[in-house]
C-alpha cells in the first residue's frame, strides 16, 4: 500500500505532470474568481466584483506564464539538441 502511494507521488512530481497540475490550478482558480465576481455583480456590489475579477485575471495570467515557460523551455531544449547534433556532425566530418 505504501509503495503504491510512493509511485503515485513520484508520478505526480515528475516535471511535466507538475506543470500540468499548476496550469490546471491557476485556470480553475481564475474560473472560480470570475463566477464569484459575477455573483457580486448581480448583487450590485461593484467594488468587490471588480477586485475578485481582477484576482481572476491575475490567476489567468499566472496560468499563461506557466504555459509560456513550458513552451520556451521546450524550444530551448530543441535548439540545444540541434546545436549538439550540428557540432557532432562537424566533428565527424573533421575525421
Approximate strand percentage: under 5%
Domain unit count: 1
How many helical elements? Answer: 3
Which residue ranges are poorly predicted, with pLDDT under 50 across at least 5 consecutive positions? none
Give the proportion of residues in helices.
Answer: over 70%
The coarse silhouette is rod-shaped
Averaging pLDDT over every residue, what do you get? 82
The profile of the biggest β sheet is: none
Based on helices, strands and strand pairing, what is the structural class? mainly alpha
Tell me the span between the first and last alpha carbons: 56 Å
Radius of gyration: 22 Å
Count of strand segments: 0
What is the N-to-C succession of helices and strands? Answer: HHH
Description:
The structure is a single chain. The protein has one domain (2-94). The protein has helices at residues 2-12, 15-42, 46-94. The chain has 95 residues and is mostly helical.
Q: What is this structure's SSE topology?
A:
Layout: H1 2-12, H2 15-42, H3 46-94
How would you sum up this structure in a few lines?
This protein is mostly helical. 93% of the residues lie in helices and 0% in strands.
